[in-house]
Amino acid sequence: MGRKAKFTDDDFFDATLRVIAREGAAACTIADVAAELGAPVGSVYHRFASREELLARLWLRTVRRFQEPYLVVLGAATQGDAESDEPVRAVFRWVRQHPDEAQLLLLHRRRDLVARMPDGPGAEAATLNDTLEEAFKAYARRRFGRADRAAVERVTFALVDIPYAAIRRHLGAGGLPPRGLEALSVRTARAALAEDGTADT
Amino acid sequence: MGRKAKFTDDDFFDATLRVIAREGAAACTIADVAAELGAPVGSVYHRFASREELLARLWLRTVRRFQEPYLVVLGAATQGDAESDEPVRAVFRWVRQHPDEAQLLLLHRRRDLVARMPDGPGAEAATLNDTLEEAFKAYARRRFGRADRAAVERVTFALVDIPYAAIRRHLGAGGLPPRGLEALSVRTARAALAEDGTADT
DNA sequence: CTGATACTAGAATATGAATTCAGATATGAG
DNA sequence: CTCATATCTGAATTCATATTCTAGTATCAG
What is the distance between the alpha carbons of residues B161 and B152, in angstroms, rounded to a whole number? Predict the structure, then answer.
């Protein structure tokens, strides 16, 4: 019943990702995506109602793919000072293995990609956000015995913002972060989480 | 000899900045800028050859304005562990005083703003880059006794990337960073610069 | 083999924003 | 007061892309 699809949704996402990695999100046109995949533009619109929806769903797939392994590591983190090492390393690992997706996630704000998130994807986006937020709260509780705004912010800073900061410059320049940066990030994240006299976030 | 100008270049830059802060760079059209200033679109083109040039020069003005006070602080940094405190604080100070410009600088890559930097501005951009690079090298020499790639990278990470990382999330959400983050950043930057057994960047 | 279906095709159209252009206006010099 | 000149205006034009549309094609059920 019906012709067999020549391209999968993921084919379109992958092609879009490559174009964005190469030319930047702003310069990524539907015609570019179609050409990258060797498909006509009409096919893109057969799958996706609009450019907006294509980008929104690609963004979602990317967030999901990053979060999946990351949440596992975050939940399994061992006790003590080294508790932050694995999550930080996980970010580096993921970036090395998925440079194009990392570029999408680290170098673009969702807002600049999709002005108004379509309804369907929007719901999933909220879910993903909540899941991550919950994981950080759990981590904060484990680590600091509380999960107020300040504690969660500090955890986010140490486990996400710091590795992102280390990586971003290099991704932007089109390369991967040098090995040494990983060690530095691990060490820095530990310091950010260490208890000391300083007032909390 | 000739009519007096009604708007200065800076008027246009400021208007552009406000539009970008409000709607994002991608959504910033020439018509928006003109409306924001209460000028007709033609006037924009009387001053700037293209949208590209307008954005390029705004970007430059912004980098220049950030660097000027920052370089002073960087050069005057005191000796010892606290050597990194002032530069980090300077970033926070500047962001609080210039939230719109900070948003431009922290939330957008130059490449996404201007695909191809026009020649004139391009030359100044290179100069600004070199100046900052030199300042970091000098800092690295003072601090580590060397200014190789790894040392400079580490300094950049501690003095720029870390405060940026702390601030970025909040700027994106449309607010300023909470006070506590400044202390955390200062502390974290110190750790990133501290000598220890770990291999360098 | 045949019709129904779900997709591929890419030319044609619509849309929105950048850019141009043909005056209109203000200012200073003489 | 008038000319020369620099600047301003905003409607008209051009351009780049998103989006739509009409046709063609492969696959499956019967």
Answer: 12
Using pLDDT thresholds of 50, 70 and 90, give the confidence band for residue A199: very low
Measure the CA–CA gap between B5 and B118, rounded to whole angstroms: 24
Same domain, B90 and B21: no
Given CB atoms, is A126 within the 8 Å cutoff of chain B?
Answer: no
B26 contacts on A by Cβ (under 8 Å): 26, 112
Residue A88 and residue A148 share a domain: yes
**Residue A197 pLDDT more than 50?**
no
CATH of the domain at A13: 1.10.10
Q: State residue B81's pLDDT score.
A: 74
Residue B156 and residue A166: Cβ atoms within 8 Å?
no
Could you tell me which of B85, B103, B100 has the C-alpha nearest to residue B168? Answer: B103
- Spatial distance between the Cα atoms of A177 and A97, rounded to a whole number of angstroms: 12
Q: What is the pLDDT of residue A122?
A: 85
pLDDT, one tens digit per residue, over A63-90 is 999 999 999 999 987 777 788 999 999 9
Q: Indicate the residue of B112, B168, B181 with minimum beta-carbon distance to A24.
A: B112
Say whether pLDDT at B164 is over 80: yes
Cβ(A78)–Cβ(A86) under 8 Å? yes
Cα end-to-end span (Å), chain B: 60
Domain count, chain B: 2
Is residue A95 pLDDT above 80, yes or no? yes
Does B56 reside within a domain? no
Which pTM does this prediction carry? Answer: 0.92
Contact between A201 and B192 using a beta-carbon 8 Å cutoff: no
B60 falls within a domain: no
CATH of the domain at B40: 1.10.10.60
Taking CA B135 as the corner, what is the angle to CA B93 and CA B196, rounded to the nearest 5 degrees? 85
A108 vs chain B: nearest CA distance in angstroms? Answer: 8
Distances (CA, A) of B84 to A93, A163, B163, B186: 29, 20, 11, 7
Does the CB of A29 fall within 7 Å of any strand D atom? yes
Residues B159 and B114 in one domain: yes
Q: B111, A24: Cβ pair inside 8 Å?
A: yes
**Separation between the CA of B14 and the C1’ of C23 (whole angstroms):** 29
